[in-house]
Specification:
With about 50 residues, this protein is mostly loops. It has one helix and no strands. The longest helix has 4 residues. Keywords: Plasmid.
Length: about 50
């Protein structure tokens, strides 16, 4: 997980394979107990 600044046109790359990008309001991941370095696995989406 990487926290990025919202509403920018800066391109980002990953050193490891990435399955997707999730954009949520700042603080939403913390509310779910997800922090930088967390690995997220599952077959359903979070109810954000």
């Amino acid at each position: 997980m990487q926290e990025l600044e919202p509403h920018t046109t800066t391109k980002h790359s990953s050193l490891r394979p990435a399955l997707g990008i999730i954009e949520v309001p700042r603080g939403q991941f913390a509310n779910l107990g997800i922090e930088r370095g967390s690995t997220i696995t599952g077959s359903t989406c979070f109810n954000l």
